[in-house]
Amino acid sequence: MIKFLDLQKINLQYQDEIEAKLIQVFRSGWYLMGSELAMFEKNLAQYIGTEYSIGVANGLDALRLILRAYIEMGLMNPGDEIIVPSNTYIASILAISDNGLIPVLVEPDINNYNIDVFKIEEKITSKTKGILIVHLYGRVVFSAELEQLAKKHDLKIIEDNAQAIGAEWNSKKTGSLGDASGFSFYPGKNLGALGDAGAITTNDENLAKTIRALANYGSNQKYVNIYKGLNSRLDEIQAGVLDIKLKYINHENDIRRTIAKHFISNISNTKIILPENPENEKEHVWHLFVIRTENRDSLQSYLSENGVQTLIHYPIPPHQQQAYKDWNSLSFPISEKIHNEVLSLPMSPVMSEEEIAKIIQLINNF
Ligand SMILES: *Cc1c(COP(=O)(O)O)cnc(C)c1O
């Protein structure tokens, strides 16, 4: 069987280094807020190209904490609106509503599945305070138009960089393009931990300080609490493992690019719509290789019967979720079409040439 993602194989590439680190941290007796976290934060900031990086417990917390910090800083207030793509993973939207902010959904561009920048301005009101962009599937969404729009309306650009670590726009990495960025190191992400983990990057010193305090019970100084904070920490074991895997992320993303190129040049079934390969290949890190077809469910069963595991990212659009009942009667036709037609093929840095060839052949025979 060709697995959708073979996490065991991915992590065993670095078995000696990772196991040595696990033993080192175990024996050190120091498990939180130590040298492993400090080192990973320093290296992540350097890699992304920002002044600050803060390790937190997971990707959802990273996004929640950015918005919460803007509220504590007086730059946003509960009831304010944040623009977000209507086809994103639910976590981007949860981070907004969790803070008492109002998510305002904007449809994606059907050609690249990212928020349609030209549909944003019509949704901006006097309450709009930010745009939460999501580099979905690993594809950068950024442009001079987006930057100008944010400047014109005095909006913060927050990046959900959970799926696109290592991608670049204009020689700058995602995570350094907007005002602040949230990362997830969930095991299945391109840079994956051995459990939950996340981070925030920014060049804003005040924001970084506020987030650091908020993630630590609202405290900068032990037993002195400025905010009603939370506990969101990246532990020493995860930080140590991530610091090892960070050294290999460019190499792994390059392998993903090669596989994507191979799929795109060789899948030739007219029933299948392939993902757009950006002119500048740095603009995609292929967290997911997502194809589209009207016969999605039968293609998925056919591949499964022939030993190829696939997934759907995502089967139900946010506005049709029970969690957001107020939106259930709204219509977002492009999102709905995407959710009905997309299928994610296996994609990882450890796939063999035979596996790739088999997937291509099966799809061409469908
Ligand atoms: C994975 C993911 C998140 C959430 O990250 P967790 O670490 O699972 O909390 C947020 N946004 C997007 C787009 C994601 O893919």
UniProtKB/TrEMBL annotation:
<feature type="modified residue" description="N6-(pyridoxal phosphate)lysine">
    <location>
        <position position="189"/>
    </location>
</feature>
<keyword id="KW-0808">Transferase</keyword>
<dbReference type="GO" id="GO:0000271">
    <property type="term" value="P:polysaccharide biosynthetic process"/>
</dbReference>
<keyword id="KW-0663">Pyridoxal phosphate</keyword>
<dbReference type="InterPro" id="IPR015422">
    <property type="entry name" value="PyrdxlP-dep_Trfase_small"/>
</dbReference>
<dbReference type="Pfam" id="PF01041">
    <property type="entry name" value="DegT_DnrJ_EryC1"/>
</dbReference>
<dbReference type="InterPro" id="IPR000653">
    <property type="entry name" value="DegT/StrS_aminotransferase"/>
</dbReference>
<dbReference type="GO" id="GO:0008483">
    <property type="term" value="F:transaminase activity"/>
</dbReference>
<dbReference type="InterPro" id="IPR015424">
    <property type="entry name" value="PyrdxlP-dep_Trfase"/>
</dbReference>
<keyword id="KW-0032">Aminotransferase</keyword>
<feature type="active site" description="Proton acceptor">
    <location>
        <position position="189"/>
    </location>
</feature>
<protein>
    <submittedName>
        <fullName>DegT/DnrJ/EryC1/StrS family aminotransferase</fullName>
    </submittedName>
</protein>
<dbReference type="GO" id="GO:0030170">
    <property type="term" value="F:pyridoxal phosphate binding"/>
</dbReference>
<dbReference type="InterPro" id="IPR015421">
    <property type="entry name" value="PyrdxlP-dep_Trfase_major"/>
</dbReference>
<comment type="similarity">
    <text>Belongs to the DegT/DnrJ/EryC1 family.</text>
</comment>
